[in-house]
């Protein structure tokens, strides 16, 4: 199978601090990873597409300076929520594409962020 | 943007009954996928149906796709308590590359 992990699974931080969330593909190399955000009882909203070795592509309305994405290796992408505020509290989920199959995304278990 | 809409938003059934949920979308697609999400967890891929397919089966799951109506349905037969979860459809639009656009989801409760 294709396993994607996220760390941490949950985090609580104070307003104004920055939080880094890691997304790893454990048994495959992922040239492309995606970051989603999900509010309670709502659907997933794509935030950005992360390609290894290049800048992330952000969806309209997502602040790239607020949500820093780094995809430094074929197995790791990180999302850093900078100067977090309570409205950033959400469930963040990453997914990865496992080549050569490109039409199925494998999802991580998600990270619950609570900003106090 | 969310192009998929799902109905019903919530569904409560008894164990053993069938559960049917529908998904509608707006633009042309390469394929449509269904995912399951247990509360507070990640998504599990259930089934993918391509735009040139009309029906697909996987175990107790049956998916249909009607591209003329831009709609899909997911049927879970002989439901079990363990099927309690939220179910999302996701489309891979022809102009969107590999990006997925998710529907609003259907929350299914299977009562034992």
Beta content of chain A comes to: over 45%
Oligomer: heterodimer
Termini separation of chain B comes to: 36 Å
Number of strands of chain A: 11
Query: How are helices and strands ordered from N to C of chain B?
Result: EEEEEEEEEEE
Please state the overall shape of chain A, judged from the principal axes of the Cα atoms. Answer: globular
What's the total number of strands of chain B? 11
What form of chain B results from the Cα inertia axes?
A: globular
- Share of helix of chain A, binned: under 10%
Structural class of chain B: mainly beta
Task: Report the sheet with the most strands of chain A, covering strand number, pairing sense and barrel closure.
Answer: 7 strands, mixed
User: How many whole angstroms does the radius of gyration of chain A measure?
Assistant: 13 Å
Q: What Rg of chain B, in angstroms, do the CA atoms define?
A: 13 Å
How helix-rich are the residues of chain B, as a percent range?
under 10%
Number of helices of chain B: 0
On the 0 to 100 scale, the average pLDDT of chain B is 91
Q: What does the main sheet of chain B amount to?
A: 6 strands, mixed
- Helix-strand makeup class of chain A: mainly beta
Poorly predicted runs of 5 or more residues of chain B: none
The chain-level mean pLDDT of chain A equals: 93
In the predicted model, the low-confidence regions of chain A spanning at least 5 consecutive residues are none
